[in-house]
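Following up on my earlier thread - several people asked me to post the actual chain instead of describing it. Fair enough. Here it is, all 297 residues.
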Amino acid sequence: MRQDRGYFQNDYQAERTSVLIWLICAIVAGFLLQNVLGRWFDQGARIEQYLALSIASLREGHVWTLLTYSLLHDPDNLLHIIGNLLGLFFFGREVLAHTGPKRFLILYGAMVLGGGLAWGATHWVQGGLVVGASAAVAGLLILFACLHPDRPITLLLFFILPVTIKPRYVALAALLIDLCGFLFYEVLRAHSPFGFAHSAHLGGMAVGWLYYRFTTGDGWKLPSFGHVHVEPPKWMRKKNAAPEPPAYRVNVTPASKDELRAEVDRILDKINSKGFQSLSPDEKRTLDEARNLLNRS
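Reply from S.P.:
Thanks for posting it. Predicted structure:
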């Protein structure tokens, strides 16, 4: 019966809160807890003692700090948490659509753990303290670039000039910056003007790349620098510029009813295993055409 098909029914279950939103809420809650207890009750040092990652806490056996440090941020630097939350949201939602909620949560924890272990191994002698979710954000950036290396993304340079660039180049630039920072500021123990935990970033990146490498079986090679397209704002464009040629649509809908039915069954199996958000535009179009065809029959 066609009414048994989920996409023909009008009553859908309410979508559950995404695990990504829960992570963001936990990070915001940790930041608020830091500020409330630190500024009002002078207990900021106690929170860092039990939740922040430091060599002293590791030597005392506080191994849980290898994960909980990602919930804390610099309470005096609002850009620290804002930057991490933006990266977590934009890269995390793309990765979440690929992995699903349970695997995403495990992957996020592995990136945080990998960043904490890399930082701890680097600073075991000299000591120190680190907080922030940047290790996981760096890992999500690498994984996003591996999954969609050529998908163009637009960044606002100085919040004015839009710059269109491929994710592979963003990931390559971030990797080179962290490698240089790790070598010159952490290994050689020079004072860093940025205050970044480059070793933690590299640990998260390594986890993201290893996940892609061993789950897809397709190694992602670091690309050479290519052309970076800088698009001027609308008010700088010429009014008489030639319009872009229209994109041609390729019809990939199966020709016969038997092929259509087989394709619909495959898509439904994909929905059951990976969720509706994993469907491509062509697969969603196939479902719509199948529904219209059955309604006419």
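The beta strands are 53-54, 129-130, 153-157, 161-165, 229-230. That should answer part of your original question.
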